[in-house]
TrEMBL record:
Gene Ontology MF, one: metal ion binding
Name of the molecule in the record: DNA ligase
Role this protein plays: DNA ligase that catalyzes the formation of phosphodiester linkages between 5'-phosphoryl and 3'-hydroxyl groups in double-stranded DNA using NAD as a coenzyme and as the energy source for the reaction. It is essential for DNA replication and repair of damaged DNA.
UniProt-listed Pfam families: BRCT, DNA_ligase_aden, DNA_ligase_ZBD, HHH_2, OB_DNA_ligase
Binding site for Zn(2+): C431, C434, C455, C461
Domain BRCT stretches: 635-714
InterPro entries (alphabetical): BRCT_dom, BRCT_dom_sf, DisA/LigA_HHH, DNA_ligase, DNA_ligase_AS, DNA_ligase_CS, DNAligase_adenylation, DNAligase_N
Record-annotated active site: K128
Record's keyword annotation contains NAD: yes
Keywords recorded for this protein, A-Z: DNA damage, DNA repair, DNA replication, Ligase, Magnesium, Manganese, Metal-binding, NAD, Zinc
Catalytic activity: NAD(+) + (deoxyribonucleotide)n-3'-hydroxyl + 5'-phospho-(deoxyribonucleotide)m = (deoxyribonucleotide)n+m + AMP + beta-nicotinamide D-nucleotide
Chain positions recorded as NAD(+) binding sites: D43, A44, E45, Y46, D47, S92, L93, E126, R149, E186, K302, K326
């Protein structure tokens, strides 16, 4: 990081090399931001670089390069999507950084129009949404094409992706819209959707997401629109491009029109003639920033009258009649003392920076997220450099940023201040909570290494214990009556239950305990007895349920059933997985050879059984429970053998999975839909269209009880 001399003090020679340096920096940042959706420097640094670039060009016009960046916005579009030329360029905005800049802006306007007697200029003020801009073209009220901004002149055709956004009307409503209407606005992701996606992805071993803006950008550039559709992106309309007829006389009214035609417009837009009101609105928006639920990075002021906008005109890359008043960069410099590793409920190891407390934007920050080990090493999830490739080390001086209510991040390190003896951070390969191996999985869908490292101690890791115990007793697993999430959490907190085996020792432990369950709040003699009985009743669980209950990653109900069917008893399954984990290729291939079982599952299963602590926990558990052998005696002589059966409505005596397994055991085929080939429909309460379909086709319909009678299982 060079020490910036004021531009006035630069020699011609220094100015030239400085301009070249900034040119490279801005181009690189543009590419990172617009093409890779992975900014490599902070907005504040970028703005400062742009400003300094302009200052040098203004002070030394002779140094202006033929490829000057002052005329360019963003980066050229990436390959892959068709290019779209914008009929009206998509411009950028000049920036104001303080109240004085805003007053100057208004003053410039008043000066420009000073000859117009009695003209009082009105301006609008609205949030600057931190997403990415898009242009939506409507012809005769129908959405025909949508594009990204690209370099402002040419963007990418992302019509199909934009069609998946609920806020983008496919057809305009109301009346009075021009035949050709290009609506412009911002695509963004809410904090809630971002958090949900991040969580889901962590559970599924998908990629790590750093912030809503980049995620929205990545989502919009998906080749497969169904992926975009799942991201629940949103859109605010705030401007327009080509129009075949004027849509209003003022900015404010034009935006209201867009609202009437079906677009979502931001509710925080005002119109005023006074600078004080503009600044007042800015502060009010700033105060609401943390609770808006989406990221904004400033307030945009625009001259209200459209005829006057036209007269005031444009400078190279931005309109003269509008300006973005940026929020102060919520950044501060501090020291990173230590990197701690936290283990999440699903076993993810998350690095957290413990900082010398520092005030950032009025809030004391002591911790910041470091996302994952690649992030610490200076790489993004595609392996590209971030922070100019600098890694993050304990003892480093770092720049911390807080934006809205997003968790503080470390956006840069100050390499000059790095202690001489510092060493790269070594990300642990064992779980700090339980000592089990922590691994990075390969995502089966993308073939990429997961950014997160995960603890393999599913059964014994205290950080994961509560979640796993809840899973163990859940409805489709061991399904223990009266032992739900609430009870598990309480028993775990009291130390009564730490691992699955403890559940089955609960009654015995209770006889020895001084704090009897029946005396605890919420319990009594009867309820405690009932619970112990319910637990006892599950000492011989079905094999598929038992395997599912272990909570092995990637082993859901159906995969558990495949293992149960293939191996018939638990020991055989365990033995095979154990051998495979020890490097026995034949055993590994046996697992892989099961139809419906892939690499990810096999890796997860072998990893699970290779973990000694899991093994111990299973031994303890098997001392208490005896999973039933899986009998696949398909009877050819049952009343339903060879018949095609459909279950519909809610079943009360068995789960769907159980019903299916039972029918198959009895030689029936289970189908999901009713057709002429269906022989029998078992309908529970609430059965709907399938029941109707059966009746109209004359297919026999019976109740769940009748099913048990007929199959002789009652
Ligand atoms: S008006 C000709 N209004 O900020 C004026 N832009 O830095 C066009 N942005 O490219 C822009 N919120 O992506 C405008 N309320 C708002 C905005 C907004 C976000 C973005 C937009 C634009 C960038 C300029």
């Amino acid at each position: 990081m060079s020490i910036d001399l004021p531009v006035d003090e630069l020699s011609l020679e220094d100015a030239k090399s400085e301009l070249d340096r900034l040119h490279r920096l801005i181009e690189k940042a543009d590419r990172a931001y617009y093409q890779d959706d992975a900014p490599d420097i902070s907005d504040a640094e970028y703005d400062a670089a742009r400003r300094r670039y302009m200052e040098i060009e203004t002070r030394f016009p002779e140094l202006r390069r033929a490829d000057s960046l002052s005329e360019r916005v963003g980066a050229a579009p990436v390959d892959g999507f068709a290019k779209v030329r914008h009929a009206v360029p998509m411009l950028s905005l000049g920036n104001a950084f303080d109240d004085a800049d805003v007053a100057d802006f208004v003053q410039r306007g008043r000066k420009f129009f000073e000859r117009d007697k009695n003209l009082e200029l009105a301006f609008t003020a609205e949030p600057k949404i931190d997403g990415l801009s898009a242009s939506l073209r409507y012809e005769n009220g129908i959405f025909v094409r949508g594009a990204t901004r690209g370099d402002g002149t040419e963007g990418e055709d992302i019509t199909e992706n934009l069609k998946t956004i609920a806020d983008v009307p496919k057809k305009l409503s109301g009346a009075g819209w021009p035949d050709v209407l290009e609506v412009r606005g911002e695509v963004y992701m809410t904090h809630a959707d971002f958090a949900a996606l991040k969580k889901r992805s962590a559970e599924e071993g998908g990629q790590d997401y750093v912030n809503p803006r980049n995620t929205a950008a990545g989502s919009l550039r998906q080749k497969d629109p169904s992926v975009t559709a799942k991201r629940n992106l949103k859109f605010f309309a705030y401007a327009w491009g080509q129009v075949s007829a004027p849509i209003a006389d003022t900015q404010y009214e034009a935006v209201q029109r867009l609202g009437e035609w079906g677009f979502v417009i931001n509710p925080l837009m005002i119109r005023t003639t006074s600078v004080e009101d503009l600044l007042g609105h800015y502060r009010s928006i700033e105060e609401q920033r943390a609770t808006l639920g989406y990221d904004i990075d400033g307030v945009v002021y625009k001259l209200d009258r459209l005829d006057l906008q036209q007269r005031w005109g444009f400078v190279a890359r931005a309109p003269r009649w509008a300006i973005a008043h940026k929020f102060p960069a919520e950044q501060a410099t501090t020291i990173l003392h230590k990197i701690d590793i936290q283990v999440g409920r699903t076993g993810t190891l998350t690095p957290v920076a413990r900082l010398q407390p520092v005030t950032v934007g009025g809030v004391v920050v002591e911790n910041a997220t470091l996302h994952n080990e690649d992030y610490i090493a200076g790489r993004d999830s595609f392996g590209a450099e971030i922070r100019e490739g600098y890694d993050i080390r304990e003892g480093d001086t770092v720049i911390v940023q807080r934006a809205g209510d997003v968790i503080p991040q470390i956006v840069a390190v100050v390499p000059d201040k790095r202690p001489a003896q510092s060493k790269p951070f070594e990300f642990p390969h064992v779980c700090p909570e339980c000592g089990s191996e922590a691994v990075r999985e390969v995502n089966p869908k993308t073939g990429k290494l997961d950014a997160r490292r995960r603890c393999t101690g599913e059964l014994i890791c205290p950080a994961q214990a509560v979640e796993n115990l809840k899973h163990f007793v859940s409805r489709n697993a061991l399904d223990i009556d009266g032992l739900g999430d609430k009870q598990i959490a309480a028993f775990h907190a009291e130390g009564r239950i730490r691992e699955p085996a403890d559940i089955f020792r609960l009654a015995e432990e209770d006889t020895r305990s001084l704090k009897k369950l029946k005396d605890q709040e919420g319990w009594g003699e009867t309820s405690a007895k009932k619970l112990f009985a319910a637990i006892d009743a599950r000492r011989e669980p079905e094999l598929d349920r038992f395997i599912f209950a272990l909570g092995i990653r990637h082993v859901g109900e159906s995969t558990a059933a495949l293992f149960a069917k293939t191996f018939s008893n638990f020991e055989a399954f365990r033995e095979m997985a154990f051998r495979a984990g020890k490097g026995d290729a034949e055993a590994y291939n046996t697992l892989l050879g099961i139809d419906g079982v892939g690499d990810t599952v096999v890796q997860s299963v072998t990893g699970f059984f290779a973990n000694e602590r899991n093994e111990k926990a299973i031994d303890a558990l098997l001392a208490e429970v005896k999973p039933k052998d899986y009998v696949v005696s398909i009877s050819a002589d049952s009343a339903v053998a060879g018949k095609t059966v459909v279950f519909t409505g809610s079943l009360e005596r068995m789960s769907r999975t159980e019903a299916k397994a039972m029918a198959e055991r009895l030689g029936a085929k289970v189908s999901g839909s009713v057709s002429a080939k269906t022989d029998l429909v078992v309908a529970g309460p609430g059965a709907g269209s399938k029941l109707k379909q059966a009746e109209s086709l004359g297919v026999e319909v019976i109740s769940e009880d009748e099913w048990f009678e007929r199959t002789g299982q009652a």
